[in-house]
Each structure stands twice: as structure tokens, then as C-alpha cells.
Specification:
Layout (H helix, E strand, L loop, with lengths): L2 E4 L2 E7 L1 H12 L13 H9 L3 E6 L13 E2 L2 E2 L12 H16 L6 E3 H6 L1 H6 L1 H4 L5 H22 L8
Parallel strand pairs: 2-3
Antiparallel strand pairs: 1-2, 3-6, 4-5
Length: about 170
């Protein structure tokens, strides 16, 4: 759902909220983005966020603009599986569950349009709730996620001149 570019700035994309935070995590970890063998658009949209070219997001609990081109996307449904949890096998079902939990914690609604700056301003609610959101995942992995997302949030806030919430 790419919406209109002006001077290299993309006004809006449809994104899963967890994909947004995955990108912020990678940004905080200093990870360079590159094309993935699955063919999805994570690296493209990640670069837009890295370089402050994406201004607004339509939050969705469903396949988003990152999923476009993925070899596991079939008729709008993700056919990929996960193996890091006993309670989920379907990546689609887990990601939907995850996105709805994150939106609930942050006070957002499925389908809501929001500025990237606003998500960054409110991101402490996400960080403070990571243990709850990712309950059932490996705790060490969740803690590393918290550190890297926190670093990415602080870096983005500085770049954009945003006052942050509490200390990360």
C-alpha cells in the first residue's frame, strides 16, 4: 500500500507494529539491512525508516507492505511456520497475536494511521511491556531485544529531536 512519494519521502505504508519495532531493533544494534532470501521487502522499508523517509504508518494485524514479494505469501496468507514456541506453529497466527498484543499495550487500534514520530514518543510503553508481550519466548532473547530496541528508539528520538519518555 505504498502511498505517494514527494521529494524522496514516503507519506505512508501499511505495517505490522512488530515489524516497525524489528526495524528499530536492528537500527539500535547497528545492523546493515540487505535483501533476504524470502524475497520480502524488510530491507527496503527498513532503509526508509533508517533514513527518516517514512512519515506515517497504517498499523495492521495482517500481512503488510513488508510481506509483499515474500515467497511464503500466498493469496494474502503467510504459509511460513515458526519453531521457537510450543503454542504456535503458524507464523501468520503468531504475528497477528503479537501485533494485537503490542497495539493493546500501546493503546493503538488495528487500521489506525499514525506518525512514526508518535510511535517513537510512546515506545516506552512497548519496552516496559516486553516481558508480557513476548511471554513464551526465550527470556534472554527478549532481554536482548529490549536492549537493541531501546538503543534504536533513543537514537531515532535524538535524530528527530523528540523528547523521549523515561530512560531506556
Amino acid at each position: 500500500m505504498e502511498i505517494y512519494r514527494k521529494a524522496g519521502v514516503l507519506s505512508m505504508r501499511e505495517l505490522r507494529i512488530h515489524h516497525f519495532f524489528d526495524i528499530i531493533r536492528d537500527y539500535g544494534a547497528g545492523k546493515a539491512l540487505k535483501a533476504h532470501e524470502y524475497g520480502h521487502s524488510y530491507h527496503i522499508i527498513g532503509e526508509e525508516i533508517y533514513h527518516n523517509k517514512l512519515k506515517r504508518i497504517k498499523l495492521i494485524a495482517g500481512n503488510d507492505d513488508i510481506c509483499g514479494g515474500c515467497r511464503y505469501l500466498d493469496s494474502g496468507k503467510c504459509l511460513d511456520t515458526i519453531d521457537h514456541r510450543a503454542d504456535f506453529k503458524s507464523k501468520q497466527e503468531f504475528n497477528d497475536y503479537l501485533d494485537l498484543r503490542i497495539m493493546k499495550v500501546m493503546g493503538y487500534q488495528n487500521g489506525q494511521e499514525i506518525q512514526v514520530r508518535e510511535i517513537l514518543r510512546c515506545a516506552d510503553a512497548y519496552l516496559d511491556s516486553l516481558a508480557l508481550i513476548y511471554e513464551g519466548n526465550d527470556r534472554a532473547h527478549t532481554e536482548l531485544r529490549k536492549q537493541n530496541v531501546g538503543a534504536g528508539i533513543q537514537r531515532k528520538r535524538r535524530e528527530l529531536g523528540l523528547a523521549g519518555g523515561g530512560a531506556v
